[in-house]
Amino acid sequence: MSxxxxxxxxxxxxxxxxxxxxxxxxxxxxxxxxxVVKDKPIVISTWDFGKEANEAAWELLGKxxxxxxxxxxxxxxxxxxxxxxxxxxxxxPDRDGHVTLDACIMDENYKCGSVAFLEHIxxxxxxxxxxxxKTPHVMLVGEGALQxxxxxGFKKENLLTDKSEKEWKEWLKESKYxxxxxxxxxxxxxxxxxxxxxxKNHDTIGMVAMxxxxxxxxxxxxxxxxxxxxxxxxxxxxxxxxxxxxxxxxAATSTGVGExxxxxxxxxxxxxxxxxxFEPEAACKEAVERIIKRNPENAKKVQVGFLALNKNGxxxxxxxxxxxxxxxxxxxxxxxxxxxxxxxx
Length: 345
Ligand code: ASP
Hints:
Layout: H1 3-26, E1 35-36, E2 42-46, H2 50-61, H3 67-80, E3 101-106, E4 112-118, H4 124-134, E5 139-141, H5 142-151, H6 162-174, E6 205-210, E7 216-222, E8 243-246, E9 250-256, H7 258-263, H8 266-275, H9 280-294, H10 296-299, E10 304-310, E11 314-319, E12 325-330, E13 334-338
Parallel strand pairs: 4-5
Antiparallel strand pairs: 1-11, 2-6, 2-12, 3-4, 3-7, 6-7, 8-9, 9-10, 10-11, 12-13
Bound molecules: aspartic acid.
Aspartic acid binds next to strand 9.
């Protein structure tokens, strides 16, 4: 084939690809029912316990407060709750018995802060905010993050509650490290029939909000996977994985097995899909399908959920498995929804 003919063939193929991709944008998948808030502000967050956190965020949002302040205040509720064993105080420890926390926060100007593998501090989200506002950096980890927190007035505390310690000691008897079947915690074991259990006693709180001025912010905080290897960090403190905010487009957050989310840079992906015209639920679904495409056998055994809000006040979620819920608070609603999911049985 002559060079010229080869060039023409390629350029024709190129145009076809461009046309196809234009079509794809025009026909971005639609959700069955689009959930949309009538009036700003709005706050949405992961899991049933998001409802209480939303209420705290709403105290600010309802009075024209800034979304950034609202999400920080909101996620501090589960962080301080000793009965919530997946976030902050009372979180389940790693397999050596240490509670190690991950958190990040992002505002309407692409400013972001994050801490990972942080011990002894009840409110990692506020340390993350301080990293964002008081340093030229985005992320501090481990001992350095702790030193930074202590130098900035945070108090060193024991985060391992009696309940979490007792359960960890039980776990130690077998010390069965089951990264794929049981990576989240004992409440998400597979049932005997090989299907995931649907008890939902996990996990991370991811919260995104739009304030009365139409500005978006988000926060994400967790104690990570129970009985993880010491030093393991999940998606939650990784900007783009556990959380992403683009004030032009929308915001997204995730929960579930962080390794799966990191591999597809999940929350950033969801926001970029919304930029291409996907509605929030459809964007979350597409991200979930990327996880499945990568490794369908593994995807069947784990849980990941995405939650998203766009600039028009539309919101939605999607998960791999049944059981992912999210809470919504606006002037017109205060509700928990069950997210749609991929694996029907
Ligand atoms: N995403 C968190 C992590 O991987 C845990 C979770 O949401 O269940 O650390």
